[in-house]
Design a protein that fits this description.
mainly alpha; two-stranded parallel sheet; globular
């Protein structure tokens, strides 16, 4: 079983300019929660309790999933997402990855 999910936080320039502290608070909460989940002794048990998965599938999913715990995003990942969105017609043209990230976030 292969599960591929990408979760990103998107905000308009207006929100980033008018409420940067709120966006930062959201990112801090997400990063903190992801880090706790990654390091918890009962993470696999939580997955099994909340999703209809076999234990081996839960283990495979947990250990093959990347968890963001900092303010960095992969440039390659952004390029892949743009390519996929362009291919299915959701966007017309690709932009530079650096133009997609907020000042507080850096590319890796």
């Amino acid at each position: 079983m292969e599960l591929n999910y990408l979760i990103q936080i998107v905000a308009s320039n207006q929100i980033l300019e008018q409420h940067p502290e709120k966006v930062e608070a959201i990112l801090k909460t997400i990063n903190f929660t992801c880090k706790q989940f990654m390091t918890a002794d009962n993470s696999i048990d939580m997955i099994l309790a909340n999703f209809d998965m076999k234990p081996e599938d839960a283990l495979a999913w947990f250990y093959s999933t990347e968890w963001n715990t900092d303010y960095k995003v992969s440039e390659k990942m952004l390029e892949n997402v743009m390519y996929s969105l362009k291919k299915i017609g959701n966007i017309v043209k690709e932009v530079k990855p650096i133009d997609l990230v907020w000042d507080m976030v850096s590319l890796k």
